[in-house]
Amino acid sequence: MKALSIHLTDVCNSKCTFCIVDSPHMKQDTIMRRRVSRFLRENAGQGYEAVNLHGGEATIRRDFLEILDEIRDLGYPTVFLQTNARKLARMEYARTVVEKGVSLFVVSMHGATAQTQDRISLAPGSFDQAVKGIRNVKELGATVRTNSVVCKDNFTELPEIIDLCLDLGADMVNISALHTSGTALRNFWQVTPRYDEIRPYVLQACERAVRRGARLLMEGFPYCTVPGYERFLVDWEDNRFKVLYRSFVMEDYENHMDDFERVKDQRCGGCAFDRVCGGVYKEYAERIGWDEFHPIAGTATGQLAPVP
Length: 308
Hints:
Pfam families: Radical_SAM (PF04055). The protein is an alpha/beta fold. Helices cover about 35% and strands about 15% of the residues. Helix 6 packs parallel to helix 9. The radius of gyration is 19 Å and the shape is globular. The mean pLDDT is about 95.
């Protein structure tokens, strides 16, 4: 897939303790509409299959619906929306968003209960709103992919989170390793679990999804931390995302991550997955080290998972 990806706002109506863009600490938005519009115009007609919108929380922009109209008028085939789904709890609003071209909703689900998710988001009621939002857009015929970021507050209930998402009708479930930047970096020791600690719960969650016949996607995990489920990691070679992040353009998201956000150790060179594995988020390696990571012998096999 070839897609544009736009960071539409710095601000959010939740204050997640591991927000990678540091939304809880942003005093004002830095994203100008004219920069977004120029990016959309410059890339129109260039074969992009979708526009992926994210933030912060994209839906809280006052001109969000106008931006959806602009995307449609420029001829982009469809829109993906990464969202906490809180505003989508209003059916009238959810219907408007679907009618304006959003076909895939990537909804943050970080807890199996309101107690867990509301504690992570620091927004009472956010769990119930997300659940209602998922139900609304599913009723409207849209596709839902949930995304669950693994952190200290939720890793023991990952299997239950997967069950909840599938019970709500999610078409795909995504499990993401914690990206230790932004607010997550500020709160590093509060929110960041060790891979050795989370592994049994991540593997159980994966097994739960596969057993139920679900479409499973995983992102950000070093390959050696998810043995037996490597094929479900995102294949970034087949998914090219050109990203507008604030005023900076990443021509290729995966190359940017390799160059600036992730690192490898010497031992990685002897791993069967060295060519496709991005390594470890650099802040994690700096603070916790490499003892948990062990190269996988043999030859990498299996088709990696595409992004829909």
